[in-house]
Amino acid sequence: MSLIDLANPSRFSAVTARVLPWLIVATILAFAVGGVQTYFAPDDYQQGATVKIMFIHVPAAWLGIAAWGVMSAAALGTLVWRHPLADVAAKAAAPIGAAFTLMCLLTGSLWGRPMWGTYWVWDARLTSVLVLFLLYLGVIALWHTIDDPTLAARAAAVFTLVGAINIPIIKFSVEWWNTLHQGASVFRIGGSAIHPSILVPLIGMLTAFTLLFLTLHLAAMRNEILRRRLRTMLLMKADAAARA
Amino acid sequence: MDFGPYAVFIVTAYAAAAVIVAALVIWIMLDRRRLVRAMADVEAQGLSRRSGRKPQEKPRDKPEGNPEDKP
Predict the structure, then answer these.
(1) pTM to 2 decimals?
(2) Do A220 and B51 touch (CB under 8 A)?
(3) pLDDT grade, residue A4 (50/70/90)?
(4) B20 to chain A, minimum CA–CA distance in Å?
(5) Which of A29, A113, A125, B58 is the S-S candidate for A181 at Cβ 3.0 to 4.6 Å?
(6) A77 Cβ neighbours under 8 A, 6+ residues apart
């Protein structure tokens, strides 16, 4: 089966119905492995036990940004190819990305209080992530404001691509400005600056969270396809009633 | 496991993450259930998707008859 075949909404629903149970099992197993690795990970020599927060904070941050990346790719699919599955992917990813960005903000705040002495500071990294969360709320509101899914998809796609400017700002904020937030330590040129005893559990949790995102996104996409079918049928019913 | 003086921050962070993930999972499951029920209701009223309909039978061609029957 080619990707083109999978791009058909009915075929996509059928294939994901078979794939989802396996993805759920893989996600649970990945969280079990990541959880055990996290439990046995040593305390950091400077930050003590608070390093445990990193195992959920970093994956949440990664997925908050990655979900906007998925939406941006889908936005291109909407605007260039006008593919209905791209609209579905973008709409389904928005609430999930918003939830992970909120998780990033909350866990970061709870990590900042004991390490920095404050829950919040208006530095470039924290502020740009807060802007990302507000952008998510904006795009979700946009989807719900316009009744016609095709029109809503186009408006949301333009909004998403404009909002994508914030992604490199988040990434490089710690280099461009003097921030309280630390610089990149996981994904950086020259390799990770984290000791393997902490890096391995972090990669385990990153894998588990990524599988969770994939599972939730596919499930939400299936829901959205069903919602559109239902809408079409209700419109057909209303049309038939109007003709009668 | 002893988290020392940071226990409240660590436990709250994990609890917040668990609540957010649980909310996402429950929201998607409830949404699915609601949509499936609504779809079943609509289908029970006799509506079906165009792509879900059985292909219509072709109308039978009118019998041409035997040319020999022509006057």
Answers:
(1) 0.88
(2) no
(3) low
(4) 7
(5) A125
(6) A83, A85, A86, A89
